[in-house]
Amino acid sequence: MAYDITVLGQLLQLLPRTRFEAFTRQHNGDRYVKHFTCWNQLAVLLFAQLGEKKSLREIETTMRSRDSTFYHLGITNVSRDTLAKANQNRSYKIFEDTFYALLQQCRLFSPGSEELDIPHELYALDATVIRVCYQLCPWAKYKKQKGAFKIHTLLSISDALPTFLVVTPGKTADVRAAKKYPGLHTMPAGSILTMDRAYNDYRLFRDITDSECFFVVRRKKNAQTLSLESMAVSDEEKQTGILKDERIGFILPQAVAIYPDDLRLVTYRDEKHDVVYEFLTNNFPLSAKTIADIYRHRWAIELFFKWIKQNLVIKTFLGTSENAVQIQVWVAMIAYLLVWWVKHQTHFDGSMTTLTWMLQDVLLEDLSLLNILRLDRESLHAAAKRCKRAQMSLL
Question: Which residues, 6+ apart, have CB-to-CB distance to 340 below 8 Å?
Fold first, then answer.
């Protein structure tokens, strides 16, 4: 299908259309559909994500006011009911599979990062909680009469790309999701995974070690371990905050049965915040300071969660069923990958937040995507106004 040159149309061209159609057939997405196809649904939801449209009414109103623009994208007569039914009935797996297909494209062109002075690929594992109304979303059980769901993510720290995501009800324990889903097995041998205290689990440690990977995790205060050897800490390391470097083992019989190997315990003091951290790791060759630095890089996944909550529509919902919420989350992550792709392929100097704001301003305008990246915010507003005046003169 030929697109006009709207910014939204150019972004849609970056998607793996052939594979999307294959996923649609696989999950019977367009069965008995005459007008509003799964591709149309994806285009509308991407418009809602990048344009910050937070309700079905807002989407419908904007589309009616720009009817000719959406007509050139192959989308006509989309009502709130039509979109709501599509989100309710079409499998979210179509959009999940599309996310992973687009992720493959992004990883092929990932520039990596020269900022990490660590001779291993570095990943962070964590989950974020999105609260919802339990009465409207009873599937998202969290606590007593409280609803929420979690987005579990394995993030590649070098390029800020999520390697895998899993959406679960809020009551699902973080470590249970990590062990249940196969995302950890995508890490290359020799990689290092950094995690917070919620992931202290003997079986998880065993799985990571058996995969020939390493982990750096913050130790739980009540973890029962035995110090086997106190390793030397140089004066230089002491000046950087390293307090102790020990070889330890687990004490409990159940723990020893699952993970009989020795571990390393690095104790580090953050002088700036006056906090003492204890890190468990199965890596012995790296310096104690490098182990502490690896955990510090875990903050990248917190920034990732903060970014998607602030710049994508995942805290207000177009539907309340689990399928509708899953679709919205997966389309939001597709939007993230598209913004990431544009930034890295065009060598855009600004942040992803700045780029998202720029795209939002001109999403339905007939402007070249490459040209708008050379403009500042003020020039972009002026260009958008000229486009709107030109469109009005043709009416």
Answer: 106, 160, 161, 352
Report the alpha-carbon distance of residue 66 to residue 63 in Å, rounded. Answer: 5
Structural contact between residues 147 and 138, judged by C-beta atoms closer than 8 angstroms: yes
- Of the candidates 220, 283, 226, the residue with the CA atom closest to the CA atom of residue 249: 226
Residue 270: phi and psi, rounded to 5, are -85, 100
Q: Structural domain boundaries of the chain?
A: 7-97+319-394
H or E stretch at 50: helix 38-50
265-303 tens-digit pLDDT: 999 999 888 999 999 999 999 999 999 999 999 999 999
Angle at 151 between CA 335 and CA 18, to 5 degrees: 40
End-to-end CA distance of the chain: 25
Q: Looking at the DSSP assignment, which residues form a beta bridge with residue 217?
A: 195, 280
Distance between CA 389 and CA 156 in Å, rounded? 44
Judging by DSSP bridges, how do beta strands 122-132 and 192-195 pair with one another? parallel
Do the beta carbons of residue 259 and residue 205 sit within 8 Å?
Answer: yes
Identify whether the C-beta of residue 218 lies closer than 8 Å to the C-beta of residue 232. Answer: no
Range list of β-strands (E), the chain: 122-132, 141-143, 146-156, 161-169, 192-195, 214-218, 225-230, 242-250, 263-270, 275-281
- Render pLDDT for 324-360 as a digit per residue (tens, 0 to 9): 999 999 999 999 999 999 998 888 888 999 999 989 8
Distance, C-alpha 71 to centroid of its chain: 31
Instruction: Give the pLDDT confidence score for residue 117 in this predicted structure.
Output: 72
Could you give the 3-state DSSP secondary structure of residue 340? Answer: helix
* Cβ neighbours, 10 Å, residue 370: 11
- The Cα–Cα gap between 339 and 163 comes to 16
